[in-house]
Amino acid sequence: MLSGATVRQAERRASHPIAGRGVVVARGVVVAAPQPGTETAHALGRLAQATAIAFRRHPHLNNVLTHICGADWKRLDTALRAVLDPAASPRTLSPLALNLLDLMNAERGVTGRIMKPYFHELLATLLPPAEAAEVAERIGALFRRAQSWRRI
Fold first, then answer.
1. Does 23 fall in a domain?
2. pLDDT tens per residue across all 152 residues of the chain
């Protein structure tokens, strides 16, 4: 059973004046997704930050990502920024970023089957439909290029 304070925190989070589409609220931190049509480093950083917060809120993803990034969430944030970067290339991604890219796309194992739909749902929540589809397609294309590159 939840304590009164926990219930009030959850209610406050849900009724936050800017909570809703394009906003992630976790642990008292409000992160807004980038505005439509912006491909700046700042917008990319905000999307990566909102994604990292959402991953930390999911119990299984939090556990797995804490393990693969060695409990250094700044490394995970850097890897997320690299994966979300429109100019990303498989050859320039770190091993952590390649692992994260694989989890976000491959649907292999328990974590991949959880993370891919969770990530796509998150994009749909944070971004307008056209931009969410564009980001998902761009990351899917990066994943396919990474798979081809690994075979060489």
1. no
2. 444 444 344 444 444 444 445 555 444 544 555 454 555 566 788 888 899 999 999 999 989 999 998 888 889 999 999 999 988 889 889 999 999 999 999 888 888 899 999 999 999 998 889 999 999 999 999 999 998 876 55
Mapped onto helix, strand or coil, the DSSP state of residue 19 is: coil
Cα-Cα-Cα-Cα dihedral sign, residues 48, 137, 35, 27 = negative
**Cα dist. 18→22, 88, 110 in Å?**
9, 32, 33
How many independent structural domains does the chain possess?
A: 1
In a domain, 38, yes or no: yes
Let me know if residue 134 belongs to a domain.
yes
In a domain, 11, yes or no: no
pTM for the model: 0.69
The residue segments making up the domain with residue 48 are 32-151
